[in-house]
Amino acid sequence: xxxxxxxxxxxxxxxxxxVSSAFxxxxxxxxxxxxxxxxxxxxxxxxxxxxGEAGVxxxxxxxxxxxxxxxxxxxxxxxxxxxxxAEDLPFAPLVTALRRxxxxxxxxxxxxxxxxxxxxxxLLPDLGGPGHTPDDEYGRAQLFEHTVNLFEKLAGDRxxxxxxxxxxWSDRSTRELLAYLIRTLHRSRVTVVxxxxxxxxxxxxxxxxxxxxxxxxxxxxxxGLQRLARPEVxxxxxxxxxxxxxxxxxxxxxxxxxxxxxxxxxxxxxxxxDKEAVGLGNSLHDILLVRVEALPEPAQxxxxxxxxxxxSVEHVLLSAVLDLPEDDLFEALCAAVSAHVLVPxxxxxxxxxxxxxxxxxxxxxxxxxxxxxxxxxxxxxxxxHPGLVPAHQRAGRxxxxxxxxxxxxxxxxxxxxxSREARRGNAFAEQVRMxxxxxxxxxxxxxEVLRDLRRYHCPDDAYPAAVExxxxxxxxxxxxxxxxxxxxxxxxxxxGEPEQSVRFARMASRVIDETAEPERAAWxxxxxxxxxHSQGDTGEEESERARRLLExxxxxxxxxxxxxxxSLGGALTHPSREHIAIGExxxxxxxxxxxxxxxxxxxxxxxxxxxxxxxxxxxxxxxREVLARATEIANPYLQARLHVNLSAHYEQLGRSSEAVExxxxxxxxxxxxxxxxxxxxxxxxxxxxxxxxxxxxQEAEAALTSSLEDTGGxxxxxxxxxxxxxxxxxxxxxxxxxxxxxxxxxxxxQQPQRMLSRADLAVRIAARSGRFADARAELxxxxxxxxxxxxxxxxxxxLVHGAVAEADSRSLPDADVGRAEVLERIRREAQRLSRAVPxxxxxxxxxxxxxxxxxxxxxxxxxxxxxxxxxxxxxPYPLAEALFGAAVAHTAAxxxxxxxxxxxxxxxxxxxxxxxxxxxEVTALAERARLPLDLSHFTGAPATPTEAPDPSATRDxxxxxxx
Length: 963
Prior knowledge:
globular, 4% strand
């Protein structure tokens, strides 16, 4: 009897031996799921998280819902998380679900995946050969993006249900990709349903915070399944016993013993002959083993071996492990299936237990050492015949079997191979898990096994060679313990666990002799610096330690990388000429040793430093040159970094049109290459900023809206939150501005540009609210330490608005105290800032005029100099503010004709920018001073003119500072 034929005969047998068709007590829950599907069909994606204890009926509810969804015309896909080896099989339930979709949709899925076959190879290996996605965090981002794109296409003209069972056994990569789908499929007709066991979620279980995070997302709801009430148990028993009215004493007895758990109700009903003759103990274990113990010995042996192989075992693998005569195996399997212990799965040609509780009971009943011996048999069978399991599961399954067999000599090579497979699949959390096992087992492995382990390519190109002249190919020498630590350090970083990365790096520092291996020691210190930087620290101490270790050493990739990191840290915190020299040296060394990736990133940093320190055109040219190179070698993430940098530089220099152009180019590249959404959000922020400066509010608002949609409503980040607040302030929405400011986390204020931008926003909001003491406090906190070089774009508006707040608060109670010291501090900081471009020159004149106003002096000529300096920028901001300031000063000086001309131009520029508050002030000044101004199209003007004051009065409206 052929294996395939025997298996499908068993499948046919199973189809005629169903346990029960009764489905009771879940009408309300089914209505909730149906409502989610209806919303999805109407274009509103949804997710339902179904939780309940083991045996409460989650699987049956899901089966009923999927059948109902298919009848309604939806496409469904189901994937199961595996209990044993779950963390060794990244994305396992999603691979299963997508395979089922491929089976059902065929060419429709292939067309949807066209062009993404390589990126989707980890999830859809059947579509083609090995993927070409890089095995780093960028490759992982591409995998996630292409998966989202696939589901968006598949659900373009129909509803699609993605169901994941047993999420409590899920691997971290599955959880992260599932969360990404739920967050970002905001325009697709997709319903996600996931089930999990609540009784497995003990303290510290990773699913607990995960579920809480998902529940906060729009369109996500939790659905808890409760045990059945007594009337529902009675209805279930009626179906199970094929009677219209089961014995009431039996109902009471089973209800009491099962406590309304449907699975236990079924098991107790199966074992029932009469209450006195059942002879069961009170333990759940005894109840669950009744079916198994009633079977012939060969069937019991098959069940034991199947339990040891995992929650699902392929027919061919089980046959190889058991090594029984074909007819005996068939007879034993038929008995196990007929008794509803094992359930065949036709699609994967495998067997699973009818319920995980039953498998757990069988495993608990094994003799000491029996489980290890069973897993050894699985591992040996798989080594002899690797084709017995799907290729994408092979390495992880083999590592798991050997690990559970407690054989260090065999498991160490297996877990290392599984770690490499996980890395190739961009499953970094699972890679870390495998590497942790390797580190744990290293000392237990025999010396001959360790000698045979060979080095493989480290994921970081700067990692030092094992020996002099080592070309770092796959066979470049023996693998060392420290090499595994290096792999784990990078994997932890890429999985988003910087603390874990530091832990591995510290372990390495304890075993490395820094005198004998300074390059390797420096590399680990560099990883610690990067981890510190990712957590909001500067990482300067760690970077300097790495640099000291390499002093006087020959040029190397790690030396270039260390220097590049130091120059980048300087660029982001306190750029100096020293950092330029360090960056130049990094470029030279990287070029000399052929570290091209390090060289290109070091050149980008060097270009940033040049711009910050006044070598503007040279710095821009350097970065444009690297951008051309990045485009040539098709490195989209390096392109994205440059699009972010260049658009920011152009805006900082007052060249807003160029900033818009380069940002739009960056967005097109990001979308074309399906870069991750956070990357796109950064470029979007750099598009919104110049659009606001140019007065293109509708375009800016559309970009901000698209950024919110693009991230699926997740946290926008402090840059986008600040821009939302800026837009609210322009619209006169003070509450919205305050809300945006509150969303900017203080932990993100390490970089000076972000800290200064936030402080400027806070000063304006406080002054607009009449809280001048708070405005002063925000200013002084921001300039408490010397403003770093290169921060001119952020420092000038902060100082100007700080001076505006001081001028607007003149003569208010207690506001004059300390003003002279504050103004002097502002002047000192301004003396250190650049005036190299028209924008900075105009800001400098505005500051001089506001400082004079704060001291009670009127300087119309200084305001005119500010206006003339700002005209060439072609930006309504801050030209509108300068024009209004000049109009006020000329009004106070009695130059009414010139004041009227300036005020009309200020009104034009304020309207162009959409600055509601400044328009109100223009209106108020025109009415008070009786200056001619066409206000017919400004609906925001006050309905009743205020009393006209003396035209020589200076601006005294507290909200002026928020203009």
